[in-house]
Amino acid sequence: MTDHSYLNGGKRRVPMKLFNARIYLYVLPDLVVMSGAFALAYLLRFDFDVPPREVRNALVQWPMVLALQFAALFWTGAYTFIWRYIGIAELKTFIKSAVYSSAPLILLRFFLPDPHAYGRVPLSIILMNAMLAFGGLLGIRILRRVLYERFEKRHKAQRSDGRKRPVLLIGAGRAGVLAVREIQSCGDVDLDVKGFIDDDPRKQGSVIHGVPVLGTTRDLPRLVEELKIDHVVISIAQASRRDFRRILDLCEQVPIKARIIPGLYELLQGKVQVSRVRDIQIEDLLGREPVHLDQELMERLLAERVVMVTGAGGSIGSELARQAARFRPSRLVLVERAEFALFNIERELKQKWPDLEIAAVVGDVGDEVRMRAVFARHAPHVVLHAAAHKHVPMMERNVAEAVRNNVLATRSLGQLAGRFDAEVFVLISSDKAVRPTSIMGATKRVAELVVQDLNRRYATRYVAVRFGNVIDSAGSVIPIFRQQIREGGPVTVTHPDMTRYFMTIPEAAQLVLQAGAMGEGGEIFILDMGEPVRILDLAKQIIKLSGLKPFEDIEIVFTGMRPGEKLFEELQMTEEMMTRTRHPKIFIGRISAYPPRVVNEALERLADLAQRDDEAGIRDYLTRLLPEAQLRRAPVDSSPFAAVKAVQLAARS
Questions:
Q1: Percentage helix, strand, coil, to 5, in the chain?
Q2: Which of 138, 168, 273, 609 is deepest in the core (most CB within 10 A)?
């Protein structure tokens, strides 16, 4: 059988087989509706007293009219719709079908010669027939959807215990409308929406899908008491961090539990449905505005290109691979030395993009022989270098390995990118590279110098992208806090005044790709991380979101700052000039590159010290190489808990 694809508005329709039993189940009722509409149009035209001559004309015209209408329906793709999901969006297809089928009849009416006058359909009948026929076709499909939803709702309600929890939705915007509509249509959702709460005065007193807007957030305590509300659901599509905190503070005062509908990112990823209300997570409180990418620029960078991602099994590397896959590269090369992590991301990507060519490479980026073979085989156009040692305290105890992996491997991989004519090389850097107090930060700063030096030597565009902590990345503080809470505490915080920048993993990956696409070579891009977050406040909020009280149900203990840590991180140095780019969340740090001779000598010296595992020598040399660095080993307090006891007591207040 031959597959036929239908075009509508220049967009390719889903391929549909003409000889399909399901299609004929649709065609038969349509035939009845359109025939009835044509007969009714004639009856209305002649006040239900059709002359015999017009009856003969109608019988001649009837097959022609039906043929044109069926042709229009197939051409516009109306038979690709599933009846039980029909909605307003499909209305325009039926309007187009009515226009396409009526236009030939109108032309025949005016231009058909007199000897064939029996084929000329009166204009009034053409118009009435179009409205009756296509209105009827849409009507039976809507009826099918109504019956289906009613049956499904009853069936699901029978499977559930039938008990509903009364809730209020905070936010009567688009997300709230979607949520209430799906909750009403799903019989297995144990929620009974009593009303909306919205601070927009224009919405007060209105009714949305039968659900009234009962008041503003100031009315929440009264409404909770009057309606015996079990919990409230935040249904604001793009709520800011400030909005969430304000609503949560208000709910704590009532008190009432607050939950949330899934965010846009979760919905697009297919992880949840709108009606699957979930508890608020710390990611919601740290949430930021969605990233808007320059799609054309991204496609020029990634589409039909060979893209290599190093560290592809890690938090950032795996998300870079996911985001790159969306733009359909010709091949995606995943480099990772942890085979199980590589297996997981390869399997995920193959499930989501089965047509994408994926090359999973087990290898260490520091193994120059292995990487040379990978470059020779795949010849990547774009290299996204996320492989690195990032854990600050761990690298303080493994100094030589930090140099080998973060500095020397970056140089080796960057040289291969240049020699094999890669177009772009993107280094994932860190905010800890600014005035580094840790080995991890210092090695990342040297890696930036390496990238700038390579940019002078090869035609490849080398750029670095610097940003702070990402939520839920491997080894980050948020998963540690959650685990400590599950174990009953205590939650450990190094210092009550410590702050960090946070962004979500998808946001970081998207901005990295955007920066790589716009880079001309030699830049160090700095991502807008928003406002810093106090780690103590973060710990308290995670405890509260777990339904517990800080310092009562879960203790918070201050352990003292670890070697290499700062109280606060920076994304730029005062010596740097920040330059805006065309993307509002990406800046360029105008950081002067080191002379080539200095970089070469530094790399030779660091390679020698790392080979001899000379920790003290590496610290001393990095301190001389980077005047802003402070890498002397800090004395370790044998009793950090006692040293900060007074601070801990003060923080309780």
A1: 50, 15, 35
A2: 168
> Which has the closest alpha carbon to 170: 237, 71, 268, 103?
237
Q: What is the pLDDT of residues 239-268, one digit of tens each?
A: 666 777 788 778 877 878 777 765 544 443
Higher pLDDT, 635 or 606: 606
Q: Write the pLDDT tens digit of every residue in 198-245.
A: 888 888 888 887 788 888 888 888 888 888 888 888 877 666 667 777
User: Alpha-carbon torsion 331, 336, 340, 344, what sign?
Assistant: negative
Which residues neighbour 450 within 8 Å (Cβ) at sequence distance 6 or greater? Answer: 407, 410, 411, 414, 599, 603
The position carrying tokens 């064939």 is 116
What is the 3-state secondary structure of 544-597?
Answer: HHCCCCECCCECEEECCCCCCCCCCCCCCCCCCEEEECCCCCEEEEECCCCCHH
Spell out the residues 6+ positions from residue 330 whose beta carbon is closer than 8 angstroms to its own: 304, 305, 306, 357
DSSP β-bridge partners for residue 525: 465, 588
**Rounded Cα distance, 375 and 416, in Å:** 7
What number of helices (H) and strands (E) belong to the chain? Answer: 24, 26
**Phi and psi at residue 359, in whole multiples of 5°?**
-115, 110
Q: Which amino acid is at 274?
A: V
Residues 6+ apart with CB under 8 A from 417: 375, 380, 383, 425, 454, 458, 460, 462
Q: Tell me which residue has tokens 């004929």.
A: 24
Q: 487: buried, middle or exposed (CB in 10 Å: 19+, 13-18, 0-12)?
A: exposed
CB hemisphere CA count around 473 (13 angstroms): 22
What is residue 315's DSSP assignment? H
How far apart, in whole angstroms, are the C-alpha atoms of residue 348 and residue 335?
15
Cα-only R_g, the chain = 33
Whole-angstrom Cα distance, residue 587 to residue 525? 6
Q: What does the alpha-carbon distance between residue 310 and residue 365 come to, in Å, rounded to a whole number?
A: 7
**Residue with tokens 């007969």, as numbered in its chain:** 39
Q: Going by C-beta distance under 8 Å and a sequence separation of 6 or more, which residues neighbour residue 497?
A: 534, 536, 567
Strand intervals (E) in 299-445: 306-310, 331-336, 358-362, 382-385, 424-428
State how beta strands 165-170 and 231-234 pair.
parallel
Confidence band, pLDDT 50/70/90 cuts, at residue 28: confident
Q: Helix, strand, or coil here: 84?
A: helix
Q: Which two tokens stand for residue 345?
A: 């991301």
Measured CA distances, 596 to 447, 450, 454, 591 (Å): 14, 9, 9, 15
Contact in structure between 175 and 181 (CB atoms under 8 Å): no
Contact residues for 454 (Cβ-Cβ < 8 A; gap 6+): 411, 414, 415, 417, 418, 425, 460, 462
The structure tokens 């040293």 sit at 643
